[in-house]
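Need Beta-hydroxyacyl-ACP dehydratase's 3D structure for a figure. Predict it.
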Amino acid sequence: MRFTLIDRITDLVPGERIIATKCLSLAEEYLEDHFPRFPVMPGVLMLEAMTQTSAWLIRATEDFAHSVVILQEARNVKYADFVEPGEVLTVTAEWVKQEGRLTSLKVKGTVAGNMAVSARLVLDRYNLGGDVQSGADRLAIRNLKDDFNVLYPEASRV
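Structure prediction for Beta-hydroxyacyl-ACP dehydratase:
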């Protein structure tokens, strides 16, 4: 099972920032188990939405040079509010610095302008084939580009 926790990328400036949204629906399968009488988006999935948003910024900035972008470290994670069905989590990631394969980002998630979660994330990136892209890397990157064009239709117009 693969969770895509971003519904739309609404703004993107490569190397600087990205803004994406997640519309939480009561139909999300995990809400059946995550407090059935008080359904809220689990904190770990809020963090994953921030990680996925940040990964799209890295991919777009580097023109999809790597097939794998993963969370290396989450620092200062602060949960301030719940995200409930019917609400929209807006995730903003800002590029802080790049050191080798690692990118540091300042990320926040808001609901109706109010802080729900914030963190400093460090993401790593690499190719399965090492310095040279393998066939698996090329296939993964092609699929990622297809997903990106769905999430950010403006990219195909540029």
